[in-house]
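### Sample
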Amino acid sequence: MMRIEDIIDLDTHPLAQAGFGTRCDAILDDEGVLVLENFIRPAALAAILAESKAKQEEAYFCAQSHSVYLTPDDPAYPEDHPANRKVVSSKGCICDDVVAATSPLRTLYDDRTFRDFVARVTGQTELHPYADPLSSINIHYANRGQELGWHFDNSSFAITLLIQKPDAGSRFEYVKGLRDADANEMNYDGVDAVLQGTLQPRVLTMEPGTLVLFRGRNSMHRVTPNESDKTRMLAVLAYNSEVGVELSENARMTFYGRLS
């Protein structure tokens, strides 16, 4: 099993140093996204890639039609209204219980220094794994033509690690602060402008080994279709601010195809 210093480049990213955390916190608050390039050391990234390729045949693939808000249809509006207009997301996923106990991803996820850094930067008192056996660590796969449609996240932040980058397509696009979910301000006009292409998003470029913290609750975002035969592979590390939180059974069946 790799040690955490063999996985994270702690010289470039000194997670335990207060000053580094303060700078990262400021960037995340200002930009809505924190990009830590070359976060994972090459040998650890190679091990994660090898594991991801070996487990890909176990991935559950699905395609879903959903609104940008990830909510049921609102009968108060027509089908083509931004509240109800449908986009498509399609991907494969393997779950936490498929990720090996010796995987660098698990060592990273469980490491106290890393978890404390994420908590400090995102403003959480503490972070805990999901109580269900599937949701804490996921690896996502996008083959040619697969994409994530425009949406807002339900969670306040997301942590992703790019494992393999396709040769074309799969651009991460986002519009920061397009709505205010806490104030119930959905900004339908702004969402419509993005869907119509009259409001242009930012494009976030990244290379394999890059860790990204993203505030997607109020920032509309998508991943464009993969335009190559090289699979996009991405790890998602998910925590909760409270103990005992499970992803709902409906969500697990939708995204994973199973409950346990």
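The mean pLDDT is 95. This sample (Fe2OG dioxygenase domain-containing protein) is used throughout the tutorial notebook.
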